[in-house]
Each structure stands twice: as C-alpha cells, then as structure tokens.
Amino acid sequence: MRRGIAFGELVLAVLCGLGAVASWNRGLVTTSFAAAGEMPGFDATRYVAPWLLLATLLLVFAGLFAVDAVSRVRSLSSPN
C-alpha cells in the first residue's frame, strides 16, 4: 500500500514539475520592436506575476511530494 502511495506521489511530483515549467514559460512574454528611423530595434520582456506565482507553487508542491515519497520508500526498507 505504501509503495502505491509513494509511486502516486512521484507521479504527482513529475506532473507538478511539468506544470511549473509550462507556467513559467507562460509567465515570460517577449515582444520584439522593429527599428523605426533612428531608433534601434529591441526586445522587451514582460513578467506576468500570476503565472510565475503558479509556477513557484507547483514547484514547491512537487518538492513536497517527492520528499514524502522518498521518506515512505525509506521507511519500508528500514528495520523496525
């Protein structure tokens, strides 16, 4: 039973990690401006706070799930 829970937590950790990467990518918006006359072209990066906050929270939950899964597996192998 504990191995099944640990496996489920590892799956949740991976899903949270993937969600964190996707959210972080949505949180960075880059806009390119072309040169106009004497003004040079440039790229502007805008940070979208809600997406970055979601990415941070998902990463925290992924870490918690991973730590709990490892502790469950280690408690199975330790002698009582």
What tags apply to this protein structure?
alpha+beta, 69% helix, 15% strand
Give, in order, the helices and strands.
HEEH
Q: How are the strands of the largest sheet arranged? A: 1-2
Parts with pLDDT < 50 across at least 5 consecutive residues: none
The description of the largest β-sheet is: 2 strands, antiparallel
What is the approximate shape?
rod-shaped
How many helices does DSSP assign? 2
Summing up helix and strand content along with how strands pair, one would put the structural category as alpha+beta
Mean pLDDT: 93
What portion of the residues fall into strands of 2 or more residues? 15-25%
Distance between the termini: 17 Å
User: Roughly how much helix do the residues carry, as a percent range?
Assistant: 55-70%
**C-alpha-based Rg, rounded:** 21 Å
- What is the number of independent domains? 1
The total of beta strands comes to 2
